[in-house]
Amino acid sequence: MIWNPLADTKLIEQLGWTLLHSVWQIALAALILYALLRLMRSTSANVKYVVAVSFLAISVALPVVTFLQISERIDITKTGRQYQQQDDGFQSGEAREGRIPVSQNAIATQSEHVQATDDVSASLQALRNFLERELPAGFPFVVALWLIGVGLFSFRMVGGVWQLHQYKTSERSLINTEWQKRFSALCEKLSVNRAVQFAQSNLIGTPIAFGVFKPLIIVPAGIFLQIDPRQLESIIAHELIHIRRYDPLVNLIQNVVEVLFFYHPCVWWISKQIRREREFAADAAVTSAIVGCDLIYATALANLEEIRLSANKTGASMATAANGGNLMQRIQKILHQKTEITRASSAWPAGLAIALISAVLLGLFSFTPATFVNAQKKANGRKLAIGFVSIPPLARPEGNVMDSDATTRLMIAKLAQYKIPAVGFVTGSMISDGDKFYPVRANMVRMWRDAGLEVGIGNFKHIWFYNTPYDDYVAGVEKNEAVVKKMLAEKNLPLKYFSYPYLNTGKSVEERDRFESWLNAQGLHSVKYTIDNQEWMYSYAYDMARSDNDVNTMTEVRVAFIKYMDKMFDHYEAYSQDMFGRDIPQTMVLTTSRLVADSADDLFGMIQKRGYNFVSMDEAQADEAYKTPENVIGNFGNSWFERWTATQGKKLREEPKVDDSVAASWKERQLKK
Q1: Is residue 14 situated within a structural domain?
Q2: End of a domain among 306, 334, 362?
Q3: Alpha carbon of 447 to those of 355, 374, 431, 488: distances in Å?
């Protein structure tokens, strides 16, 4: 056979046995690491990173030690075989000459006294001898496959090195003086004592850091116009921390180990844990070094990923990138979330194998509901209460639950930042089938509740009262009430507010009044929104641009949205002066959309510049203006300012129009239905 000459070589046998033993050795190391990481869940990411790197080193050391030991054993075995052959020849001669008498009866008697354990030991030894005799015949084939694999993965790694070389030499330009100064200040602030180059390139879609002896940070050429300067500083700080920690060197070693042990999935798993914890550790260092940047940094990572996707570029594996690791988990950790994912296998219908249950601990929002509501209780000036319809957020594209989760977290963080005691109205069908909760979506409502924000209800389904029989409508509200009360009961919280879906109050005044009486009997009060708007149309256009990774359109929609909302405030403030001769406390309806979350600084900042203080729904609707009679009923949903005006027989003001591009996007959606 062609392999036989090769099988006799010492090196082939050494490598063959080493590769064979490495399978169980590295698997055992990975199993121990898995157990340790489970036990160290509350430990800092940096400690877990060091532990993971240590186990990667152990995974390399074990095969090396095995290789050396096998080398010695092979030498001893071959020497022993030579002596055995000589001894066998001597004994054969003795037997032929009759010098060594053999007694069969003596052998039989001796065998009867052998212990069962000796039989087992002999069997195991026989198996071992068989394997040591037979397995080496296949080692040349195994080693050849391993060498081919090492060659292919080495080629892949060389390609990564070449890609970094291209980044370093092609389409690279210097950064302007202002950003060079900022970069130097960041190096000093983060105690980065090494000389680090800072450049920009058209070849990359996200900032990267690489270089062991001459470290370099490269950012996309257009990023200075695409991201807020404070956000960009936090991203650059992340890369500087990688360099300070010598992470590029560790990453290089990881790539070499992955080449040598390409065949072992446990090596790839350990390496994945290292990269994961490395990003967590760098994130923690950023938020520790730059006080108060948590939300800015989290938003920067989300925006950075959008920019990368729009550029359709991927980073080199040889570099450490700002958007590396599990982006969603990183954002959650930055916002001080602790998400526990429970895995369970059962015989659920449709073969559901994994149930994600997030147990929320919002350290960022550690205030109590009373503190939140009363944050601006005594503020002077204009007042505004905000209701969000609905929670949890809608997911676009549909089914993207984790995107809804991220939007919820960002929204809550922004509401906390601006101390807005908002009410979130739950659409029950989004979190429950009426009996059981959908774990992940229900947890989003719990996040809202546990942040001290008030929870209200709409109907179980987001339906028009006008198009629904009265009894069916009431039944839907009752069903929703039961679902939400069950969740509020976990924290002994009351349910106070109801929001009409689509702001539609039914077919007739009598039906509306009858329903209002029913609400009062349930201890619920309906919300009268004075500032209605078409934010949902802008949000749809924004979501479509996000799904297409169209950063330019996203930016245009955000700018247009803020201008539109500014006009809407002018519009409804004029109503307030017309009707009451003063600025009454306003109530505004929004959706929990990604547009509102991403535009929160501009939107809430604009509202504050107009002189508004954020108050609770209780305080806003306690004003006498909300007792103004209205009898406007029909197949529509209007602001209460418009209802009051129409009831008094006055002419309605012309409402600001939605931007043409946004209206066209919504119209296209309607045509697709």
Answers
A1: no
A2: 334
A3: 18, 20, 13, 12
Sign of CA dihedral 305, 308, 312, 315: negative
Spatial separation of the C-alpha atoms in residues 321 and 314, rounded to whole Å: 10
Instruction: Say whether both 324 and 426 belong to one domain.
Output: no
Q: Which residues contact 454 (CB under 8 A, 6 or more apart)?
A: 369, 373, 421, 422, 423, 424, 496, 497, 616, 617
301 pLDDT band, cuts 50/70/90, is: confident
pLDDT in tens, 453-494: 999 999 999 999 999 999 999 999 999 999 999 999 999 999
Reported as a single tens digit per residue, the pLDDT across 559-592 is 999 999 999 999 999 999 999 999 999 999 999 9
Q: What does pTM read for this prediction?
A: 0.54
**Structural domain of residue 225, as residue ranges?**
172-334
Query: Span 176-202, mean pLDDT?
Result: 85
Orientation angle between helical segments 327-334 and 265-289, nearest 10 degrees: 30
Give the DSSP letter string of 356-404: -------GGG-S-HHHHHTTTTT--SEEEEEEEEEESPP-SSTT-HHHH
Contact by Cβ (8 Å): 313, 204: yes
The bridge status of strand 612-614 relative to strand 586-590 is unpaired
Under DSSP, the state recorded for 526 is E
386 against 665, higher pLDDT: 386
Distance (Å, whole) CA 564 – CA 378: 30
Q: How many domains in the chain? A: 2
Say what the pLDDT of residue 256 is.
Answer: 93
Residue 515 has pLDDT above 90, yes or no: yes
How far apart are the C-alpha atoms of 20 and 237, rounded to whole Å?
Answer: 44
> Does 627 map to a domain?
yes
Q: Do 280 and 333 form a contact (C-beta atoms < 8 A)? A: yes
The predicted pLDDT at position 100 comes to: 40
Residue 355 within a domain: no
Do 471 and 526 belong together in one domain?
Answer: yes
